[in-house]
Amino acid sequence: MIGQLRGKLLAKQPPQLLLDVNGVGYEIDAPMSTFYNLPAVGAEVTLLTHLVVREDAHILFGFGAERERRLFRELLKVTNVGPKLALAILSGITVDAFLLCIEANNVDALVKIPGVGRKTAERLIVELRDRAKHMGDVAFSLGAAPSGANGAGAAGATAEAFSALVSLGYKPVEVTRLLKAAPADAQTTEDLIRHALKAASTA
To answer: Environment class of residue 86 by beta-carbon count within 10 Å: exposed (0-12), middle (13-18) or buried (19+)?
Structure first.
């Protein structure tokens, strides 16, 4: 199992990034909570990882904090929750907010996350209720450097944000609406996605 990687960030196009580790390029899928804290392309970054092995592919997931990876692993244990949905959940809600939803039986907040229907939300609450109590004290973070400019123009950033949100499970029509509502000062891909996810969660 690959547990951690440190190397140069070669590219980042949510939800995927490319990390050069001693000349080997690792394609890594990461939640937006990790993307928000990535440094600029060309900088060094350390990520905790989780490898998912399928018959047709080996997929590496990366996280900037142990709490994110631990929740991701717990989500994979829930009935009918796969890596893609787990990634969408971590992108659509913070670890702390998710744990509060589980503790408070807040189904309505969970169903606002793309891909999470009422039955799935209820299943998450039932299957994670006991385990969630032990996740709140995990606070280890790798302390990634603040995000830098992603080098894309406004049009490129919007296209990347659109692609990322669709990959996370949002419908194209909804993504278009969310991105149009983003403030004018949201210029980077990460800022656009952050505003879109915030707007979706309060809709």
So the answer is: buried
The answer to whether 17 and 9 have CB atoms below 8 angstroms apart is: yes
State which H helix or E strand residue 13 sits in.
strand 4-13
Structural domain includes residue 138? no
Residue 41 lies in a domain: yes
Task: Tell whether 196 is covered by a domain.
Answer: yes
Domain containing 179 equals: 154-202
Domain-located, residue 77: no
What does pTM read for this prediction? 0.72
- Over residues 148-172, the pLDDT tens digits come to 333 345 557 787 888 888 877 787 7
What pLDDT digit, counting tens, does each position of 35-44 carry? Answer: 888 999 999 9
CB-CB contact of 45 with 39 (8 Å):
yes
CB 32 within 8 A of CB 15: yes
